[in-house]
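Sample pair:
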Amino acid sequence: MTYFVILAFIAIVASLGSALFFMMRRDQGGADAQAKSRGMVRALALRVGFSILLFVCILLAWKLGYIHPTGIPSAR
């Protein structure tokens, strides 16, 4: 489970980097602007999908008993 979470975080950061690449790319004309926009939207949609998948997997792992909440210890 730990490896899956690490892999999901890497995928989220990679998709954010890809969106940044498409956003910072120099605009050469009208057709390139559409490709730039399409690529950025696709990368951000992947990031949202990876984030939702990670959240669902964490909830599923908690429900199946693979992970347990520990809480924050009180300072009393």
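The CA atoms of residues 62 and 72 lie 17 Å apart.
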